Amino acid sequence: MLRFQGQRKSEEVLLVIHRHWFNLLAHLFIVVVLSVLLIGSLLSMPLVFSKLLSPEYTRVFLFLENTLFLFIWIYGFLVWIDYYFDVWIVTNERIVNIEQKGLFVRQTSELNFPRVQDVTSTVEGFIPTILNFGDVYVQTAGEKERFTFRQVPDPLHIKDVVMRLTKSALESDIRQAATSLQHKT
Fold first, then answer.
1. Is residue 8 helix, strand or coil?
2. Which DSSP category does 121 fall into?
């Protein structure tokens, strides 16, 4: 049984959702292309500019190449961190959104099902349609008006689960209200 920090005793985790793998692949493709270009420049620049073969220019050139490679590696690391630590947890009582913003900032928000007003799923584009991923928007009456599940797999299924849980929570609230009114009379 999966547990997370801040989980209530009566809560049961139903879904743990990360962004679709294609989102990570698209960002890492940029890292690979930049790395190939950097390695290509490392091999071809000395051939084009023969001055780069002299010792004083070689050190500067290698320093610049290594610095650029370090920035590319850091970008790739940040992409991975953002992908891995962005998570949406759907329980039988609420939705918990944990969003990593950079290395040292994590934002956590939650939404109880009785506050849900509307749930929308969108799949836009050829590749998202083929691979079945997209966005799910949960409209609320609360302080944070809209929860967004960005680039998640099977958004229609997630929408259906959230709508079913919302309906169940509302029916439970109505039964509790009716029971408390009967006891008062």
1. coil
2. E
Contacts of 135 (CB under 8 A, 6+ apart): 121, 122, 148, 149, 150, 151, 152, 155
Strand order in the sheet with 106-112: 13-17, 87-91, 94-100, 106-112
- pLDDT per position as a tens digit, 103-145: 889 998 888 888 888 999 999 999 999 999 999 999 987 666 7
Confidence of residue 185 (pLDDT cuts 50, 70, 90): low
pTM, two decimals, is 0.80
In order of start, what are the domains of the chain with their CATH numbers? 11-185 (2.30.29.30)
Nearest to 97 by CA among 148, 131, 39: 148
Nearest to 115 by CA among 140, 137, 96: 140
